[in-house]
Amino acid sequence: MTEVQRLLNAGQRDAAALAAAKEVPPPVPPDVAFLTNPAGLSDARLKELAYLATDDAHAQLTLVADDLIATLAEMFGACEVRLTAQRSAAGRLTGAVVVAN
């Protein structure tokens, strides 16, 4: 018996509605044109995009990498950004690529 069924059987409709809402996964942008916050993509979504290996998935991963570089540039200044960005992007995106292979 799921948590929602258990709560409904106990007569707790509001709690059951909240539990049911938690089971619904967050929406996934259909393509790169709808991606407004690349930094908001979860690691699981990055792995999924790497596994898809489509042009659109590549564009979304590129947006994430570019956003990471821009964020690091703001934080550390332009001189240290290239090396730091490469290491950070490699660390975050390599996990996604390893899963795809």
Structural notes for this entry:
- With 101 residues, the chain is mainly α.
- The chain folds into 2 domains: 1-27, no CATH class; 31-100, no CATH class.
- The chain is built from 5 helices and no strands.
- The model has no long low-confidence stretch (mean pLDDT 75).
Q: In a few lines, what is going on in this structure?
A:
The protein has 101 residues and is mostly helical. Helix content is 72%, strand content 0%.
| Rg calculated over all Cα atoms | 19 Å
DSSP helix count? 5
Average pLDDT, rounded to a whole number, is: 75
* Residues in helix, %: over 70%
Secondary-structure element series: HHHHH
Q: How many domains comprise the coordinates? A: 2
Strand proportion, as a percent range, falls in under 5%
The best one-word shape is: elongated
Terminus-to-terminus distance: 37 Å
- Which structural category do the helix and sheet elements fall into? mainly alpha
Biggest β-sheet: count, sense, barrel? none
| Count of individual beta strands | 0
Low-confidence stretches: none
Which SSEs are present, and which pair or pack?
Blueprint: H1 3-9, H2 13-23, H3 43-52, H4 55-76, H5 78-100
Keywords, please?
101 residues; mainly alpha; 0% strand; elongated
